[in-house]
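Below is one record:
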Amino acid sequence: MQPPRTQAPKPFGAHFPFRPPCGGKRLVFLALWGALVYNKKACYTLCAQARRPAVSRVRRAHDITKGSFPVPLMRLYFSSKFKKNLFPVLTISITFGFVLYFLLSNGGAQNLGQILLRLRWEWLGLAVFAVVLTFALEGVTLHLFCRHVCPWWTLGRSVSIGMTGLFYSAITPFSTGGQPMQIYAMRRMGMDTGKAGSVIAMKTLVYQIVMVIYSLLLVFTQLGFFQQNISNFSFITVIGLLSNSAFIGAVLLFTVSARGTDRALRFFLRLLYRLRIVRRPLHRYSRIHVQMSVFHKSAGLMGRSFRLYCTTALLTVVQITVQSLISWFIYKSFALAGEQVPVITMVAAQVFVSMVSAFVPLPGASGGAEGSFVLFFGKFFGQDIVAAMFLWRLLTYYVNIAFGGLFSVWGGKKYQAKTEEKT
């Protein structure tokens, strides 16, 4: 008697005439689809291709259709997504922890509830409008530089690149991730790497020069007031101005002098090698030197367009002023009794807060931004300083993360597709 013939398993996907919902792009979801149609062999094969352990037990189809997915596959998929976004999650958690500490330590939450009852929403709306206007000015200023080297560049690309810089500056130490990610995003949108590097370098240089001159003018006009109310104000101001001036000198050296940049690169690589931080200095030097050569060849494309530099400098002055007015709008929305603070004093205090926060190595200047705001604005807000700091931090930091991330993803998907069709 011959043994009964076993029916050969149907090919994967033959149970359903339509295409799987994932479109065949992710092996993990294809494995879930294999589990759905009782095809264990296909499920295990796809899991092996994805280099993930095979599912030990496949649940029934009616459980899966009701939303009960196999736990191992679901855990693996979401754990991989979590690992990719681990650093931003930790950054936001640390900064939010500092805000909660300031908010709950001195009864700030109770004061915030009382302030919301008397809050003047028209002034708070102006603060929100100032945030949006800051984003727009960032994109327009960057767009002027981009159009100078790439006439086909669009304003939507510039806004997306500007928001990308705000997002990655907010989640990296010393705000060091903004410019490299902007260059990377511009390269994906079709701009040459050298041109992108020259655009970001000149944009950063103009911003820092304007910031130093702006700060010097405010120091001369408001020096007496802050010396009377802020301890060690002169020391903080001198350190902030010196650090910004050193940064300007480094950017100028990097942009203008190729020989000086090469000497500085050799010096720092030699120092890092002696400190046992860099293991292969020659290999690292060759890689960086090639990238610097491309940058210096493209830096001349910016030319000596004084009209471009004057226009972008003027827009930068407006951007810094609007961004500094956010704290004044919050102050007006609190409807505090007593003598009103002049606008120029609030703007100066905000500029000094930005200078002090630049020394904090944590992402988003966590701790330093909150502490410096309390230091400079404590006299203005009085017992409501913690609530004011919470609203200021919400508008100037967490909004940058939220909208910067959204615009970064949106711009990368939209303009990357157009670039592929173009090339």
